[in-house]
Amino acid sequence: MRLAEIDEIFERAPGCRLVDELRTDESGVDPVGLRQLNLDLMDDSLPGINNVTQHVRPYTFMAWAAWKASIVAREAENDDPEVVADLVDRYEALYAWSHQIAGRPFRGAAALKRTIGHRADREPFVFSGPVWKQYRDSRTSFMAPTEYGPSIKSIRYIGADSGYVAEEAMPAVRDFEARVRDLLPARLFAIDAPSVMDEEIAPFAQHLPVDAPSEIEMKVFRGLFFDIGGHVASPGSAKRRKGTIDLVRGLLLRDGPSSIDSIRRQFARHVLPAVNDGDPEQIAISGMLLCLLQARQLQRLATEAMLFWLERLLSEGRIGSMYQPKTSEELIARAHNAAAAGDATYASSATIGDFLLSVEIEGQSTGWPGASSTGTTDAISMIAALIEAQRRDVTRVPALAARSFAIVRAVANAFEGKSPPGGLVDGIEGRPDRLPMGLMARRLEAVAARPMPSIWQEVIESWVIGQHVHWSAVRGGDGKKRLRIGLEGNGWMRVRRSSSRSVYEPTGDRLQIMLSLAVSCGLFSRDADGRYMAD
């Protein structure tokens, strides 16, 4: 209930009320508001997928379900859209149910257990009535916004609005239909709600599992996922996706079998492969976006790790259930001492500018932005170190964060004056309210003449607490408790009883998802050690 609604109630009927204890859900998503720019870079470099879309078959399955439902409804001379929607939901429920029977449940399996799975032994399930409605209302569908739905439409298996199945997808749909006909009785797919036993539906997952597409499905997916990006009339998103896949293919051909972190280091190195297929302009755009993404991932993680460090520090000295406030001066001193103990370059620097210049010089032999892929300025290693420090020794976080910010500044400066084509995210200056790398670099340079401890006044008060309080307030209209740190008297204190999460990690960058899909459709393969290879 909102405050305005409470005011209205008391205006209508003034007086005392007895109320329950106030309970609010805590939210830990994007606590310093830096996530969206990372997602923008991912959307532009790898459009059409998200961090869930790792298998090819769901694309075929949902296109088949939409096509099958429309055929069944048309043959029954029933054009009610709700009937078609009910059929599609039933087909998907049958598929999910069969995987549950096989011991391979999908995400969101709890709804299936509460409904279809919650029956007496040997009792059939009837696809009508309140239990079926409960399942439909609570399930997680392949077409959900957080699942395959946006990708299926973006890659154009199904039309964005009408549910129309693309002609390019029909060979896979027809192949799937032929296989289904051989496995399951036709009555399961008719308009009349069927009564179904476990053994009737079990063959669905046994013979058509979600992770084993046919050769025809692989060919169709490869065409819509990759090949279509080479057509002149294709949308820009398809061309950029192909450009990124061509970039990765060129790196694998040049460097041989590679792990995901090795590929990320090559992105950070920003040396495009000399041998590649595809459009050089699109490959160059992808190369720039993905290089910037590695630095932005480091910036976001270092900032959030400092929030983690700060929460731990503000947990010290608790009296009873109350956390004791700490002044900005104490926070700054503690961060400075920890950074000096953990980084010799930091400890020997008299000013912030001296430290920034020293880190920049450490990468001079390689050159920037390539230096963010190697040695003491390796962004990928710094990300791993920040995660490990949060888990095992939080006192290391300030030293790692300070070096991370210096690395990100050097990368941002290396791209000064360069920007992607119109319509794509500006990875240096985009979203100024999300502390982009260019703004961060300028703020560091503005305090370059100050002594080293001053860096923490900027980081702690502005980048961590300032960003956190701002975004907690901006998102505060949904009743969730986001604020973790508040001002009490002359000091800062922790306002939550416990941390919302254990460790911050970088946003999933979709590279693993892209590689998984590329392997599934035959573009790439993996060796015995799990490294990726170009075929």
Helix residue percentage = 40-55%
User: Percent of residues in beta strands?
Assistant: under 5%
Rounded Rg: 27 Å
Biggest β-sheet: count, sense, barrel? 2 strands, antiparallel
* Strand order in the sheet with the most strands: 1-2
**Number of distinct beta strands:** 6
Mean pLDDT: 91
Question: How far do the termini sit from each other?
Answer: 58 Å
H/E topology pattern: HHHHHEHHHEHHHHHHHHHHHHEEHEE
* Tally of alpha and pi helices: 21
Which blocks of ≥5 consecutive residues have pLDDT under 50? none
Q: Structural class from helices and strands?
A: mainly alpha
Overall morphology? globular
Q: Overview of this structure, please?
A:
The protein has 535 residues and is mainly alpha-helical. Among the domains are: 35-40 and 44-48 and 297-494, no CATH class; 57-212, no CATH class. The chain has helices at residues 3-12, 35-45, 57-75, 81-101, 109-114, 130-138, 149-154, 170-183, 198-207, 215-225, 236-255, 260-269, 280-313, 328-342, 344-347, 352-362, 379-392, 397-414, 437-446, 454-474, 511-520; strands at 125-126, 195-196, 485-488, 491-494, 524-526, 532-534. The strands form 3 sheets. The protein has a two-stranded antiparallel sheet with strand order 1-2. A two-stranded antiparallel sheet has the order 3-4. A two-stranded antiparallel ribbon has the order 5-6. Strand 3 and strand 4 form a beta hairpin. 44% of the residues are buried.
